[in-house]
Amino acid sequence: MIQGFKYCFVFLFFAGLIFQSCNRNDIYALEIKALDSLSGAVNAFAKESEKTDTLILNKAILRYNQYKQFIQQNITDTVSKTEADFIQQFYASGNSLVNFDLNRKSVVARIKLVNSQLEKLKSDAKNKVIDEEKLIEYTNLEKKQANNLVDAGQAQQKIFYTSLQEFKTSLKGIEALIKVRNNGQLPVVIKDTLSL
After folding, report:
1. How far apart are CA 35 and CA 32, in angstroms?
2. Cα-atom radius of gyration of the chain, to the nearest Å?
């Protein structure tokens, strides 16, 4: 009887190990799928971010810097309320575009970092060099980081489109103000074929 109990215990012990091993394989497989999905979402966001019209952004920033320099050097007297409003909108939207450009570069660098971390974690999971608890913990951490990245990137995109629209709106008033102070001419550096 004790001999039978021993065999039964040994059988249950090995069955438990086999079940636990199968269960671990399932956890690894599930986490690898989750990481693949997360990687796909980050890459889709990266492609969407690349659609930002950098040519228009760069032209707007160039125009902003040139007009800002002209305003700072040539408009020292009192301006009307309407002109002040245009100047204020021009500065706010222009600064926002400059900041967006800097943030966009940071987001691109962060996307590369998150992708490399996801690939490393997937590799570790496939090779089972990380225990399942740590794998789950790290996968959840990467999900949080990726979600924060995508949310921040989408917020930046909204800021870009809003700022670009406000910048375009302010240009008419700013250009009129500059022409009044510059014999009907815009600064020569600004003249180009691409209109905002």
Report:
1. 5
2. 29
